[in-house]
Amino acid sequence: MRRKTKLIHGGIPQDQHTGGVSFPIQLSSTFKQKSIGDFNYEYARTGNPTREALEKLIAELEDGNAGFAFASGMAAITTVCKLFSQGDHLLFSEDVYGGTYRLVVNVLSKEGITADFVDTTDLNKVEKTLQNNTKAIFLETPTNPLLTITDIASISKWAQDKGLLTIVDNTFATPYWQNPLQLGADVVLHSATKYLGGHSDVLAGLVVVHSKALADEIGFLQNATGAVLGAQDSWLLIRGIRTLAVRMEEIESHANQVATFLQQHSTVPIVYYPGLPTHTGYELHHKQSRGSGGILSFECGSEERVSKILSSLSYFTLAESLGAVESLISVPAKMTHASIPAERRKELGITDGLIRLSIGLEDPDDLIEDLERALKK
Ligand SMILES: Cc1ncc(COP(=O)(O)O)c(C=O)c1O
């Protein structure tokens, strides 16, 4: 089955009982047992038919053997981090999502798990941070918000040789454009709140693995810690995923046009977008990914200018999140990455004048005209 067909026919596409072409929402929290232990489903935290349909679908889309759905992207990341325990050391890409950073620094640290944030685009730097107790490397590529590109295959190979797990947050690329398990990663995860849902109306997280041992461990943790995705939200996510291909193709074409416009604008010194040939990592990204996505960031110079731009825009909504049908604008230093200390943000290049755009499905000419007006102010 090809990618676009998988989005429609993957998982369990129809209701086995009625033939309904839309998979039913099963709200029951518990299930009748014919006799003790004789059942298909036992209890909704352990397994729910609608969630199972979604989990099978995402496992197929990521070319894995087992999928798991959680109440949010952070619940998915937290559950995966429960694979590790006191005394373990983890490595993370240095500009990971601010919520991941906060989890590591403020929560995992209390559990006796230590971590280093490292420039994963440079294997030599990664090598230097390796410790005897390092257990995994967690990558984001492209990263949020600087769209930095890491070589998934090289890092996965290195990690495998050292006996570490490679975990990839594939939220920005989606399984439509990039499949980290095919490149050697062990775990792929998503904030499905973003492109997979696609309509700013569901909060969810997904995890996919290949190996039976990891599937057993994550399945156990999912049930034991309990941050599972509800049936209604599982259904919404299945519906969103059906249109992922058309949304991603269209959004990418719009993002390319907006990025090109910004790059040519005399008052914009830097544009970060993996679809621009000038982007650091352009070639690598296109080697491991089939598309450039719909997120771009640009430097506008100062906090004052950010305020002027924000107050002049009509079609970009100032909001957290990304990956939906409507275009969103955010200021990472004040919003998504506010939990990273100012000094560290500065080192990373997440300045107060950095703006992130999530390009949606509006007419790209309207988006460009909107930005043109705002940049003139
Ligand atoms: C790359 C990335 N990973 C994880 C998350 C966390 O996902 P959620 O907000 O669904 O908990 C986000 C949220 O913005 C994100 O951008």
TrEMBL record:
One of its GO terms (cellular component) is cytoplasm. Pfam families: Cys_Met_Meta_PP (PF01053). The keyword Lyase applies. The modification N6-(pyridoxal phosphate)lysine is found at residue 194. The keyword Transcription regulation does not apply. One of its GO terms (molecular function) is cystathionine gamma-lyase activity. Its cofactor is pyridoxal 5'-phosphate. GO terms for biological process: cysteine biosynthetic process via cystathionine; methionine biosynthetic process; transsulfuration. Gene3D superfamilies: Aspartate Aminotransferase, domain 1, Type I PLP-dependent aspartate aminotransferase-like (Major domain). Keywords: Lyase, Pyridoxal phosphate. NCBIfam families: PRK07671.1 (NF005810). This is Bifunctional cystathionine gamma-lyase/homocysteine desulfhydrase. It comes from Alkalicoccobacillus porphyridii. The lineage of its organism: Bacteria, Bacillati, Bacillota, Bacilli, Bacillales.
